[in-house]
Write a structure and sequence with these properties.
alpha+beta; six-stranded mixed beta sheet; two-stranded antiparallel sheet
Length: 127
């Protein structure tokens, strides 16, 4: 089965030895996305709501580059720095996945790169 590395300038560039996403067959697996504005390379200002919007926008851009979209996501994992942000994150997340949302795991973590409040990765189907 063919393995294709996905890159796009519409999402933050990888800052280490990883890819923005990898497509294998009919599936695309994204790297964890932080709330980095691809135009500035910096974490967006604001709280959990703003960061959630940016993260999901970044995921959407990577999925589009892979031939998929948010409505084709089958699984996400949300890493929250503070589970107290769950409700606010969930409200924004629900705006992106209003109909037939994907399966999801949400975990609290001790720390995230750049002091981010959350990180999300996704698995989607292509086509």
């Amino acid at each position: 089965m063919k393995r294709e590395v996905i890159t796009t300038r519409e999402a933050p560039a990888a800052v280490g030895p990883y890819s923005q996403a990898v497509r294998v067959g009919d599936f695309v697996f994204t790297a964890g996305q932080l709330a980095i504005d691809p135009a500035t390379g910096k974490l967006v200002e604001g709280g959990i709501e703003e960061q959630t919007r940016q993260v999901l926008g970044n995921i959407a851009a990577v999925l589009e580059a892979a031939g998929s979209s948010l409505d084709r996501v089958v699984k996400t994992t949300v890493f929250l720095k503070d589970m107290g942000d769950f409700r606010a994150m969930n409200q924004v997340y629900g705006q992106f996945f209003a109909s037939e949302p994907p399966a999801r795991s949400t975990v609290e973590v001790a720390n995230l790169a750049l002091g981010a409040l959350l990180e999300i990765d996704a698995i989607a189907v292509v086509g």
